[in-house]
Amino acid sequence: MPPIIYLLAGFVLLFFSGDWLVKSSVQLARHFKVSTLVIGVTVVAFGTSAPELLVSLSAVFDGAADISIGNVVGSNIANIALVLGMVSIVYPVKVKKKGVWIDWLIMMVATIGLMVASQNLQLSLIEGVFFLLLLSLFIIWSVYHSRKESKSEDKIEEPTLSLWKTAFLFLLAAAGLYFGADWLVVGAQDIAANLGVSEKVIGISVVAIGTSVPELATSLMAAIKKETDISIGNIIGSNIFNIWAVLGVTSFLKPINVNPSMVAVDYWWMFVISILLLVAILPIRKGVISRWKGAIFLMIYIFYIYLLFV
Questions:
Q1: What is the rounded average pLDDT for all residues in the chain?
Q2: How far apart are CA 201 and CA 67, in angstroms?
Q3: Helix axes of 45-61 and 232-241: crossing angle, nearest 10 degrees
Q4: Around Cβ 245, how many Cβ atoms within 10 Å?
Q5: pTM
Q6: Whose CA is closest to 47, among 69, 25, 76, 65?
Q7: Dist. CA 219–CA 36, nearest whole Å
Q8: Which has the closest alpha carbon to 57: 188, 159, 226, 178?
Q9: 47-77 in b/e burial notation, b at 16+ Cβ within 10 A?
Q10: Is the CB of residue 98 less than 8 Å from the CB of residue 284?
Q11: Residues 63-121: tens digit of each pLDDT
Q12: How far apart are CA 267 and CA 194, in angstroms?
């Protein structure tokens, strides 16, 4: 098959499989009487990072380390500049959560931690264990903090799918993510070779956008429906999971070699765009990412992608 078919098939499979994984995971949690709070902090957050995880694992075991780490860095940049940018152009995003600056601070700790850990141009088993330890602490803190903030009792909803249908959907999603990630990486590698561009560029641009498609589609649909509860916390949470969960698991299983140009250039783009997010949501309690702010984010992203290929 032509590389573009592999790439598009990978996109489609990841899009639907990511959605199925979240839905089936929520249903499984309800069957086993797990609270909606815990589902939100753990199952859904990890579910939305599953495409990035599968792509990174597939890439690193296929010897395409640049796609593996480029996918995470590119996704973190795209989540803020592309997803949040496009969403706020459709409908301005209001900051509702008072403690969003704490989430932002944790995201910056994860980002700076990745920058420091990559100075020797490798993410090893030790970094992987450290990232996973920080991830565990973050989940425990999130659950504790959310329980403390919650005024009403945390409800456990009844499942809407039978257990066997839920299990089937979960297995279907897992298979879809596996093959979708594999096809996306194969297609991306072949396209990079055919176009004469580096795997790093393809990983940061095409693959990263591909794994961010579920978040983009969901966020845009919510914006079109004018559901102003689109949470910046979800974007921040996804970026934290991308570093600590995706790179943590991947480097734990196999060391990842980091491209020097990624450390020198792309990491700094990720860092600066993360700083700009805080500037955009000031003042914290009444901040709004307006249409003009969204347009600036989108222009920054387009300029970044332009520089990648030029």
A1: 85
A2: 8
A3: 30
A4: 23
A5: 0.85
A6: 25
A7: 20
A8: 178
A9: bbbbbbbbbbbbbbeeebbbbbbbbbbbbbb
A10: yes
A11: 888 999 999 999 999 999 999 999 899 888 887 766 678 889 999 999 999 999 999 99
A12: 26
> To which H or E segment does residue 289 belong?
strand 288-289
CB-CB contact of 51 with 18 (8 Å): yes
What's the gap between Cα 121 and its chain centre? 22
pLDDT band, residue 42 (cuts 50/70/90): low
Determine phi and psi for 233, rounding to 5 degrees.
-60, -30
Backbone angles phi, psi at 88, to 5 degrees: -70, -20
- Interval 169-218: pLDDT, tens: 988 988 888 888 888 888 888 888 888 888 899 999 988 888 887 777 76
pLDDT tens digits along 228-263? 555 677 788 889 999 999 999 999 999 999 999 999
Task: Report the CATH superfamily, name and number, of domain 3-309.
Answer: NCX, central ion-binding region (1.20.1420.30)
Q: Residues 301, 121, 195, CA angle at the centre, nearest 5°?
A: 50
CA atoms within 13 A on the CB side of 296: 10
Specify the 3-state DSSP secondary structure of 34.
coil
Residue count of the chain, please give it: 310
Domain extents in the chain: 3-309
The rounded distance, in Å, linking the Cα atoms of 80 and 219 is 12
Q: DSSP class of residue 123?
A: E
Residues 217, 12 contacting (CB under 8 angstroms) = no
Query: For residues 206 and 64, is the Cβ–Cβ distance under 8 A?
Result: no
| Per-residue pLDDT at 44 exceeds 90 | no
- CA-nearest of 196, 198, 200 to 266 is 200
275, 115 contact by CB (below 8 A): no
Number of other CB atoms surrounding residue 93 within 10 Å: 26
- Nearest to residue 182, comparing CAs of 158, 157, 155, 210? 210
